[in-house]
Amino acid sequence: MRSLILASHIFGEGCEPTYTKLKQNNGSMKLSEKKETESKEGSGNQLCHSISSGAINNIHRIQDLQLAEIEMSQIYDVKKVLAEGCYARVLLANHKNTESNVVLKAIYAELTPIKDFYREYHYSYHLSPHPNILDSYNVSFKCDNCFVFAQEYAPYGDLAGHVKLGGLSESVCKLIGNQLSGALDFMHSKELVHRDLKLENILIFAPDFSKIKLCDFGATRKEGTLVSKLRCNWLPFLPPEIYEIIKNERYLCKTSSDSWQLGIILFVCLTGCPPWQMADSIQDPNYAAFWRYQKRRTTKIPVPFKKFSPRALRMFRKIFEHKPDKRAPVTEVLKYMKDPWIECKLQTSSSCSQIVSTSTLVQERKDSIKLYLRQQDGSRNSQENNKNKLNKLVNSYGLETSVDQKAISKRVWEWVLSCDVNAEHVEGI
């Protein structure tokens, strides 16, 4: 059962609002508790609202709310800006009366129609009973030309702040995949598509990643709805069917796009970088290589995927299926939780081997070429006999043998050596 902040804690003692308390029961949401309020005098009552049971019974019925405008500084001490995006700011605030921390998501009213705010707040609130979806509270208002609603605070930030070069451990990535796939499967069971999965929208509630929560439902839509491409999406996260959409073109949103973005998140967590820059088989060589491998046009494993085990490769091939109708659902990753994902080999790959400086490589190459030339000069006598035998054989066929191949070979090596010296000089400059 999730915790619930009362609006009276947020707005003060002058308001005791109606609130609803939701819980998850066998994968479905239902109204478990409802508390009626006593009418009190004061302007604080205008700030209170409740969400009707009809809207809860039908998650796709968005209810319009009466948003009162308040002065935020009179009620909250804003500590800092946690995040800022194209359409909103996320603030960490302290309620003055209760001295409790709460997160306020302030959505710019100039860039966001009021109906879009209603939709985001509605989905955020009614999806929050799931243990891996961020809690949103029954508090919303308007302030400083922003639509604002309250959410719980994630003490360890978002996933983007934890993934470094080289990625996270396999066990941590499996924890993330297990929880994230559960949250998305819950959404998909309600015929909802998140559409904006990325590291910044996954919040951490435990230092060992045993508790993460999905957030930001501003782009969430019912499956099958006509939508436009999001303007602030990171290209590597876009599935091919959405990447190919031109500006202002509309398309039907499907849960398969969430599957693709889940796969990208898992890959980034495992490696520290995306597998490609764009899902375009013409412009991106990494994606072109994976596409050929997926279509079994080659048996060569693409370089970004070489560290993975055969079972992990099978998982990625299914979740990165080019055709959305054949793409595996988000629950596909659960089938591979008991399998190793990282291939352990005795010999290290070039990406994991010790990095040698360019000057050292040039010096080693010069030494090897000089050694080769000395060996060639020292074996001149023995080669001369072999050369005479070869000349006799070639002359017997009437071929010209006046060209000294040894001299040409030596000049070629000396030219290669001079090129290395010039390259070292340019590098020093």
The number of domains: 3
Q: Name the poorly predicted regions.
A: 1-57, 346-362, 364-373
Can you tell me the CATH architecture of the largest domain?
Orthogonal Bundle
The main sheet orders its strands as 3-4-5-7-6
The CATH class label of the largest domain is: Mainly Alpha
CATH fold annotation of the largest domain: Transferase(Phosphotransferase), domain 1
Query: What sequence of helices (H) and strands (E) makes up the elements?
Result: HEEHHEEEHEEHEEEEEHEHHHHHH
Overall pLDDT metric: 78
| Alpha-beta classification | alpha+beta
Give Rg in angstroms: 32 Å
Query: What does the overall shape look like?
Result: elongated
Question: Could you characterize the architecture of this molecule?
Answer:
This protein is of the alpha+beta class and 429 residues long. The protein folds into 3 domains: 7-151, Phosphorylase Kinase, domain 1 (2-Layer Sandwich); 159-336, Transferase(Phosphotransferase), domain 1; 356-379 and 404-429. It has 12 helices and 13 strands. The chain has a 5-stranded antiparallel beta sheet. A two-stranded antiparallel ribbon has the order 1-2. The longest helix has 24 residues, at 405-428. The protein starts with 6 loop residues before the first helix and ends with a helix. 31% of the residues are buried.
Core attributes:
single chain; 429 residues; alpha+beta; Phosphorylase Kinase, domain 1; Transferase(Phosphotransferase), domain 1; 3 domains; two-stranded antiparallel ribbon; 13 strands; 16% strand; elongated; disordered N terminus
